[in-house]
């Protein structure tokens, strides 16, 4: 499983409550690293979930549902 924190994508991961608490404490103890992690997390969210990216996918899903309903 995932242990500690993964600074590559801005998500804190850990196996178990104690490991998660240590990972969060590590982030809080290093403000520069925390800021960089936050930036990467925000970039990831914008890249994956920004409306301009999601709207066409959602519209296609709706079109598909309508077409299946008509069939």
Can you walk me through this structure?
β1 and β2 (about 10) form a beta hairpin. Strands 1-2 form a two-stranded antiparallel ribbon. The N and C termini lie far apart (about 45 Å). The radius of gyration is 19 Å and the shape is elongated. It is mainly alpha-helical. About 5% of the residues are buried. The model is unreliable at about 1-5 (pLDDT under 50). The chain contains three helices and two strands.
Helices and strands, in order, run as EEHHH
Approximate strand percentage: 5-15%
Principal-axis shape equals elongated
CA gyration radius, whole angstroms: 19 Å
Largest sheet, in brief, is:
2 strands, antiparallel
N-to-C terminal Cα separation, in Å? 44 Å
Q: Unreliable stretches, pLDDT < 50, 5 or more residues?
A: 1-5
Give helix % range.
over 70%
Report strand order across the widest sheet: 1-2
Task: Please state the average pLDDT score.
Answer: 83
Alpha-beta classification: mainly alpha
The number of distinct β-strands equals 2
Tally of individual helices? 3
Q: Topology, please?
A:
Elements: E1 5-6, E2 11-12, H1 17-29, H2 31-49, H3 51-70
Offer a few descriptive terms.
single chain; 71 residues; mainly alpha; two-stranded antiparallel ribbon; 2 strands; elongated; disordered N terminus
Brief digest:
The chain is mainly alpha-helical. Helix content is 73%, strand content 6%.
